[in-house]
Design goal:
The structure is a homotetramer. Chain A is of the alpha+beta class. Chain A has one domain: L-fuculose-1-phosphate Aldolase (3-Layer(aba) Sandwich), CATH 3.40.225. Chain A contains 5 helices and 8 strands. In chain A, strands 3-2-1-4-8-7-6-5 form an 8-stranded mixed β-sheet, sandwiched between helices. In chain A, a hairpin with a 2-residue loop joins strand 1 and strand 2. Chain A is globular, with a radius of gyration of 17 Å. The termini of chain A are far apart. Chains in contact: A-B, A-D, B-C, C-D.
């Protein structure tokens, strides 16, 4: 299915975003973080549009044609392709923070297991790890980094409302887990979003290891 | 040993199936799911025949010549090559579900360990995981997904009878484990069969992790 | 340092062996089974000689020039290169079983940890695993497979004597672990030796997993 | 930002060092030991200078232009690039041991978790592992190898002082961990430094495994 672009979006701009998403997806798939066609990835195109992965594609074999345009409420623009069911969680981030340009959602075993383990607390507290410094605004291992864990639901508006409530409470939010599911994180550009994702995958894995060691 | 095809099967059709099997096998071998020449893979060719891996070959180095033709009772057709000892478990699936076209059997460490751990229950119950939605017909993490674990035996008819008994009981069946051995799963096409396999490998791994964490 | 061959050994024969060893070493190194220049690999060249890896080389980058000739008592032949300190453990196998042509010694984390865990028992008992059938002469998961664990020593004759004592006791021997060290296994050809190595690495990993799960 | 070299350092010498660092970094990144732009690597250039990775670069994609020159107190020389915050820990090693030419600092999950687990003891004691022989000067598994674990701090002079105190106490030092952070190790050349790093990663992993097994 071909993508028809609004007049305000040059083809080169959309292709640039689509290629960047496809490249990142392939590399993240190689880590095993996108099993069984799960996970989705997006980039802001302009104030009103984002490019996002089409639902159900194998993330390890993604190309430009597997990316589509949506508006900031998650509706398809200029295509009959179906965006991920979770597209609203991406556009929520773009609406809330105008300087965020990339949103990544993956589904690694570590992320899924951590989400189940910490679901009863509603949060993963990361403390004492040097790699917390990979998260924007964190300059020392001595601060704490809270990653909320929201209950899973197939009804997107409920998930959106949970994220909104956390943001409105005034607590910082760099990423969140959904129980039994995976992680959402983001950044000002692809490099920052991937640094956040890599750091959080690493830190969640360390926390699981410490618990396995009863430490 | 060369493969002689029945007049009803064009060489291009058989080669297409053989190449698809060999490609999938090489990719699954790279994950480490086919240790020591274990595992076997097949595709339906027509109503009466399937293409299947020849016994004992290194699955990481599979080519078209490592695939042979069998009838729907697992007997070699047009070749003196020996099919896997477990070929009857493949043809049983093709006989039972005419719209299933691919059967995959792998032997990962996670699958083997899970089969031993859950053997006493006779089933692995998967609940609360978003990735259950990767299994055909599952649209929510809230439903349960039961994967039976059958006792191992070197006598194939016993294994066939165990699978038949489960099917005849009317319970859904998307995959099964054999104790101390590995997993069987299938799909309408290669993409679906691989999605099922990837999702189940992931979910079994998550369940083992939760138990290691006493969670 | 160049290798001078005895008149009885054609250069093509030695090169064939050296290339086969180097290829296997590179592939096993990719699995992470040869950390920090550890591990050694050999192939029989004729009744009186074997080709073996030179001491201290990076097994992931091995080429033909990293292989040397030794006699059946582990002494260098036609070269000033130094063979592995453990060469006598290879030639012991060739002397004892004239139809064994390949010996592999690796040093994976699973092998090292298993050797420490089972050292007090002096043996790893493998039972109930389908993959035991990958070991020559084993046709069912119902038989038991015993892998002895010998105490480590830097004094090779002691290790040789321990292996001799096991063989002389009449118990079958397909492989052995050395405590805190790694595994030795072998085969009639490279394919069989690698199948044994892959199967044992897998089965030791499964046994460790079951213990981690208190199963 | 371009690098201007002092007259005493030929461009070919600096490029040789930069290329060697970049190649090692890429290979270590492939193991997953440098998550989220963490880790840093250096080589001595002459008695007064070292080449070191520029802060914040993705270690998996490092090239010659990601390496800069510093003096032996960690100050940038001939460039406005910013060296890693931890550069002083590298130059401390070069100042103390004139025959050490390579320093490697990585940040694997095993290293981070081990640093937290052993922080209360202040040391990891490695005993009974054959791979201890990969550390310079160790000829048997029977000796003990102590790797200190220092508390983490964002104030470099404190870290430098902790390392100095250990050295001045007369105890051997081949590597150290920083709590919640990673490992520092070194060697006379790149091959030795990498052998030390690989061996220590392996041995720390084995120690964690033994504890997971309550062994």
């Amino acid at each position: 299915m071909s993508q028809i672009l609004p007049a305000s979006i040059p083809a080169t701009l959309f292709h640039e975003r689509a290629d960047a998403i496809a490249e990142a997806a392939r590399e993240l798939a190689q880590h095993g973080w996108t099993p069984a066609t799960s996970s989705n990835f997006s980039m802001r195109v302009d104030a009103d549009h984002a490019a996002i992965t089409i639902s159900g594609r194998d993330k390890g074999k993604l190309g430009r044609d597997d990316i589509m345009l949506v508006d900031m409420h998650g509706k398809a623009v200029g295509t009959e392709s179906r965006p991920s069911a979770e597209t609203e969680l991406h556009t929520q981030v773009y609406r809330h923070w105008p300087d965020i340009n990339v949103v990544l959602h993956t589904h690694s075993r570590t992320q899924s297991v951590a989400s189940r383990l910490f679901a009863k607390d509603g949060v993963v507290k990361l403390e004492g790890w040097e790699l917390q410094k990979a998260i924007r605004g964190h300059t020392t291992h001595e601060s704490a980094l809270d990653i909320p864990v929201f209950p899973n639901t197939q009804h997107m508006p409920e998930l959106v409302a949970q994220v909104d409530a956390w943001i409105e409470s005034g607590k910082p939010l760099h990423a969140y887990l959904i129980n039994g599911h995976g992680i959402y994180t983001w950044g000002h550009d692809m490099a920052e979003a991937r640094r956040h994702l890599e750091a959080l995958e690493f830190l969640l894995g360390c926390e699981l290891d410490l618990r396995r060691l009863n430490a």
